[in-house]
Specification:
The complex is a heterodimer. Chain A is mostly helical. Chain A has three helices and no strands. Chain B is an alpha/beta fold. In chain B, α2 runs antiparallel to α3, α7 runs antiparallel to α17 and α11 crosses α13. The chains are: A mainly alpha, B alpha/beta.
């Protein structure tokens, strides 16, 4: 059973601000889902490689190094919640203390 | 009634000038405005641009041009980016997001002259099995409006079933094309992973996501799929292999069934399966037997592990993919005391309950101390599931199963219990884990007149064969 404290830790990692009610609810619901996932623990996978992708692993490189049509700055900034017309605006990430 | 046509019929009518694309589009828009307030299949209706696209298509038709979808009004699931047309992914966080570029599948359809009627409803970020997780309200099943249409491509499935479009694009990460197709009585193709570009598809589980088609029959799926399938340099996981002529593959399909070896996995006919679903699928298999196919029972022994594997891998990938919704570059922003506080508050306000639940689960599965026990272990069991299919396809050509254990359930019935909801995907998620293709084909109704679907599963890049088999069934069973 996940504790509300563990839920808070995960929420912080996920950058989610949760209400107390959500913390309680997710503790209960995530525990139920993880209990269900426990059935994987009994499978012998000691000699099984993991599958990250179904495709053969390969490197994909550009065939040619040619210029392509790219978005203009105006297009890139069009959906910005806040912008000064040249860049995205956010609150200061580093402050002097 | 020109709003009840298939793609094939619409194309014939347009070619013979029995009606114009503009007339066809106007008829569909009228029908959408009449029925959408009740069914809620569309989140956004593309009134103005659709008419412009239709007029342009008419000009190309007048010039004698031909494409499989020229002038045909279609719908697009709202997780695929459409240039200049709002794309919400069913989420509040993208409520006002208007893409400045098209997804490749959308660009291909645009170039081929399809008309975009609008964006269809979906569970938020395609996370769900009922469309109840959409921030824009649930879609109602046209066969019974008290029931869900399935999900996450529920809006597309309902729009096709209710003749609010000729055909539609959907996406399938764990069954999101096939299950709603089954619940709404339409034909739905999940392509092989990489067959259709994922560029411009708002990502959920990147190793599982695929773009697919929902339509009235296999013939229409073949036509639409021929336009969207193919290699794309913008998607490094896109498969560089020629696209077969899907429509041509349907010719002579009834004869081709004679040589067919069908596998029926015993793990799919278990307790919890609605008896009418089992009966209808068995009758469907019998139709192929009468056409000369041979049927044998097979085993996909790790089937029951598919669900926990899926929910660990998909949510882990989702927790990473959805990190981009941080209130900086696009979408909702809720101001906070500092940058971190802004992220948290934005995501708290912008995401719905199921999306947060999955981000939390995925973050937990990837976090220090749990990574090996959950995420890596799930990836290893994924290998076993993939091997199940490889072994099976060494002895049979196609596998037939139910799409889902039951027909459409009532709105609200499973909304409070995530585990119960997840169980409705038990027969569909393994295909995404293996990366193969599958198609959902309507095969009857239960006693409440709700549609039942059978699922045909094929090996990687087996779309042409699946479409031929689905078509053969539809030809024979309509006789």
């Amino acid at each position: 059973m996940l504790t509300p404290e563990q839920v808070s830790r995960v929420a912080h990692l996920a950058r989610l601000t949760l209400t107390d009610d959500e913390r309680q609810r997710y503790a209960r619901q995530l525990s139920a889902i993880l209990d269900y996932a426990e059935q994987l623990a009994s499978v012998d996978v000691s000699h099984v490689p993991p599958t990250a992708t179904v495709l053969p692993v390969r490197s994909v490189v550009r065939h040619t190094d040619e210029a392509h049509a790219l978005l203009t700055r105006d297009e890139v900034l069009k959906n910005a919640p806040r912008s000064d017309g040249e860049s995205f605006e956010v609150a200061a990430a580093i402050t002097e203390s | 009634m020109i709003e009840h046509l298939t793609i094939k019929e619409a194309r014939a009518g347009l070619r013979q000038k029995r009606f114009s694309s503009l007339e066809l589009t106007q008829a569909y828009l009228k029908r959408i405005h009449e029925h959408n307030p009740r069914l809620n299949a569309y989140i956004s209706i593309n009134d103005e641009e659709a008419l412009t696209q239709a007029a342009a298509a008419d000009a190309r038709i007048a010039n004698g041009e031909e494409t499989p979808v020229l002038g045909v009004p279609i719908a697009i699931k709202d997780v695929l980016s459409t240039k200049g047309l709002r794309t919400t992914a069913g989420s509040r966080i993208l409520e006002n997001y208007v893409p400045t570029w098209d997804a490749t599948s959308v660009a291909n359809l645009r170039a081929a002259g399809a008309v975009f009627l609008g964006k269809t409803n979906t569970d938020e970020f395609a996370m769900g099995s009922s469309t109840e997780n959409s921030a824009y309200g649930v879609t109602r099943n046209p066969h019974n409006e008290a029931c869900v249409p399935g999900g996450s491509s529920g809006g597309s499935a309902a729009a096709v079933a209710a003749n609010l479009c000729v055909a539609a694009l959907g996406t399938d990460t764990g069954g999101s094309v096939r299950q709603p197709a089954s619940y709404c009585g339409v034909t739905g193709l999940k392509n092989t992973y990489g067959r259709v570009s994922r560029y411009g598809l708002i990502a959920y589980g990147s190793s599982l996501d695929s773009v697919g088609v929902l339509a009235k029959n296999a013939e229409d799926v073949a036509l639409l799929n021929s336009v969207i399938a193919g290699h794309d340099a913008k998607d490094s996981t896109s498969i560089d292999s020629p696209v077969p002529d899907y429509a041509a593959a349907l010719q002579g399909s009834v004869d081709s069934v004679r040589q067919l070896r069908i596998g029926v996995p015993k793990e799919y006919f278990i307790g919890g399966l609605q008896p009418e679903v089992e009966a209808a699928v068995r009758v469907g298999i019998g139709v192929y037997e009468q056409m000369g196919a041979s049927v044998k029972e097979i085993s996909l022994p790790n089937t029951q592990l598919g669900l926990p594997v899926y929910y660990l891998i998909a949510t882990a990938e989702a927790s990473s993919n959805l990190a981009r919704f941080d209130g900086v570059k696009y979408g909702l922003r809720v101001n906070g005391d500092d940058l971190i506080d802004m992220y948290g508050k934005t995501r708290q306000a912008g995401f719905g309950a199921e999306v947060k639940r999955r981000i939390m689960l995925g973050t937990y599965a990837l976090s220090a101390g749990y990574y090996d026990a959950y995420y890596i272990r799930a990836q290893k069991v994924r290998t076993l599931i993939k091997q199940d299919f490889e072994r099976a396809f060494a002895e049979v050509d196609v596998i037939i199963t139910p799409v889902a254990p039951t027909t459409a359930f009532k709105i609200g019935e499973k909304a409070e219990d995530p585990m119960q909801m997840y169980l409705s995907d038990v027969f569909s998620v393994t295909l995404n884990l293996a990366g193969n293709c599958g198609i959902s084909v309507p095969c009857g109704f239960d006693q409440n007149q709700l549609p039942i679907g059978m699922q045909l599963l094929g090996p990687a890049l087996g779309e042409a064969q699946l479409l031929a088999l689905a078509h053969a069934y539809q030809v024979v069973s309509s006789q």
